[in-house]
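Re: How this chain folds, sequence and tokenised backbone to follow

Filed under: protein folding, tokenised backbone structure, sequence and structure records.

Contents: The amino acid chain and a row of whole-number tokens, matched residue for residue.

Body of memo: The sequence and its backbone structure tokens, given next.
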Amino acid sequence: MANYSILSREESTGATAGRAMKPKSPIATDLLEIHGYRGSLRSSENRGTHSVFVQLVAAVTFLLIINIPAAAAAVPAVFIFGDSIVDTGNNNHIVSVAKSDFPPYGRDFPGGTATGRFSNGRILPDFIAGEIFGVKNLLPPYKDPTLQMQDLLTGVSFGSAGAGYDPLTTTLTTATNIKDQLEMYREYRSKINASAGKERADKIISTSPHIIVLESNDVGIRIRRAQYDSNAYTDMLVGFALDVIKELYGLGARRIGVVGAAPIGCVPLQRVVFGGGLLERNCSEDSNEAAKLFNSKLSPAVSSLNRQLPAGAKVVYFDIFSPVLSLIQNPAPHGFEEVTRGCCGTGNVELGIFCLVPGTCTDATKYLFWDSVHPVEKAAGIIAGQTFDPASLRTLLG
């Protein structure tokens, strides 16, 4: 019988600090809370192992009866495609101007290691794989040459900093474009087919979430600005997005999550360049309006495609614009004090190699952004939890 491990190689051996425990899935926690099991489990902790076991059996039986998926039980792996928000180190292994495998990146990562994540610590895919789906706390980059088969079987990120739906965007940023990310996925499939057998590989692929986060560079750079207005360009981007979804479906993916555009006009770089300069630091309304327009088209297009696909396939749109904008407009409840500057350097335009300049902030937890584009670890965790809400996840995994 196939053994779908929920732990990565490092977690299985306890080699990585803080990763020995399987992360708790919020879907399972949410459902148990709703139906009264979570409190029962807590109160039974002092009554012995047998009582805990009985409560667990009751909870799992209930979930099976009502046919609502608990992510920790239903998801063997997590696969992510996209740009720098989800690049966990792939660009370390290509020739690209978009890199972050040097300090001060990774300052608060376990061991203080700069892994190629554009952050002081963990980023969105780590929280998606860990806190959201309960698979593993760190989602490795597919291009990491040290990966073992067990790492591959529980999922990887194919994301590349600088990528976009528009192939011209990626040409400018020297990233691995989405077409090549899908080619890497095909290669991945061949590897696990050979190692685990086609039946098990197909099961992993068909039951695991495939998440796409790939629009910020297109909307922020607007490389075709001279040729297309926002309406025409967002139409084009939605067409590209649907092509990616269809190709993933053709490769066996049956649970596909598509994340919309964030309010890219409010990142520090856009504020300085397009929002009135160093003094005003307003959000770029042009970029934000383009993001909203893109989302207003992508969401119904995804819903329409979902209805066209055969039974058993799920394509779900996830709104990231609202939770990010909420953090920017109301940061205090989460302990953030600075939302218009990044933590590294002056916080104005520093990104990638320009973060090598001295002057990184002391306490990153008070900053929403690490550099002039990317969120700090703390913010990434909050954004993941609010974007991938239990209701949408139940739809994706149903």
